[in-house]
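Example 3.2
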Amino acid sequence: MNKLDVYKAPQRTHLRVAIVEDNATARINLRSHLLSIDHFEVASYSNGKELRNGMRTINFDIVFIDYHLGQSKNGVEWVQQLIDNKLFRPSTGLFFVTSDSLPQTIGQILDLYPDVIIIKPYTIKSLTTNVRHYLNARQALLPALKCMDNNNNAGAINYVNEKLLSGVPKRVESDFIKLKGRLLLAQKHYDEAAALYSGVLSKSSSVLWAHWGLIKSEFFTGKWQHCTRMLDRLIEASLTKDKAYEWLASVEIGKQNYVYAEQLLDNINDSELTIQATRLKTLCYKMQGKSAEAVALLEKKVQSNLSVKERLVDYAMELARYHLHLAEQFNEQNRTQSVSAARMMLGKAAKGISDRQGAQQKDTMLALAFLIDDDLPRAERIMSESAQEHQFTRADVSTMVDAVRVWFGLGHTDKAKALLDKCDEKLLEQESHIESLIATDLLMNTEKSLGLEKDRALAANEKGLSAFKANDFNLALGCFHRAYSMFPGVPAFALNLLQCLSESGQTEYKNIDINHLVNELESVSLSDKNFQRMNTIRERLALSA
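Structure, written as tokens:
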């Protein structure tokens, strides 16, 4: 088989391609170049909103999207929204085209696991090489991609493993390994993912997707010390420093080191902060009682995005939520002012909302505003209408937590508690470390304010025990840590966390290490049964030392 035959192999069907580019000339040129490479069916769009409308009726095989899309959300934000709304299929190839090689830009793009990043100005030769390589890799990976489209990630992993064991052509081996890492993360197989990424980096320390994959794996397994050491090294490289600061701040927030986390985020210009990084910095301010700084940052982001309707909605919602947080802390006069400010922001956001999830988020916060203002009938009416039109279980965790607070305030405790259970399930599905941190903070504060921390801690501990018996140590550690953090002072919670760390072979989980737990348990009185467990754990630790 000659080289030409290899390139023609994937051309058995006409793949459907979407081009998203706000510059008409660049859009036309890219279309022309692609048609000279293969017999693609090409649809062209000038912004993400048009792409979203197109993806509702067309299953595209490949999307070429520019990072900067004029007066609109950037390409990363649009793709993330399409993924969240289940419009961007896992099998869809993702090509990012950008003239911006700034660290923050590349870091955002890498978070989406793009198949290819093309830097402008590109040559026809480089475009052709990248597209043809992708077509070959896609053809080889197609059975796995189809499994992913059918929500069968386990089947996709099996296919990839079988092919890697039997041997795949060198030219596509990296594509198989990259997809396997992505699948392992999606399936929460973090230890296996960490081993895969470590293996890639042992051969080449310059593979960025492997760096971020390893960091994500260790973040979610609670191995934060090694995670921090890796990030410290990435700060020294210009291409990765902004993203490294963002990750480091996430770790420090998880450790409740809010002052240091704020200092880390100060290394990123406010104008370069993404919506997620802005939420992180707002959380740092909130936990330090720096409300004026939090409001000022969010107001600055709202003002700087007045012409970007879709992004304005996100920042206006965040500012509204923060005003509602303040309203719950203030006396009657200041509370009225904060509720009024929140309603004003919700009104501003409402003008740009174009999806059901955004509408539900806005309605739920509006109901919370009326609840805080003691207008229970209006809060009840909004919640009833919203619940009929949208299922809260499809909302993001922040909206679900807002709904919990409203249902409790209206006396619908059964609805609220059922939704809290759904929040736990949603948190386990969360793939974004920042969303996980913020949602966990919202959830735990809500549980505390409603006086549910003991019951919720007991429920988390029970779930941890079930996972521990099934040898699912990652899930067990997360549950035990949640119970321990939510309702401190219960020896059984600390002992369960210590035993799970010991048997999983880990010395730390997030902000807690084995020595801390041992010292804590040695300073309290234990029941006979727990004392025996403690001695068994001590013996195991001594043997492994």
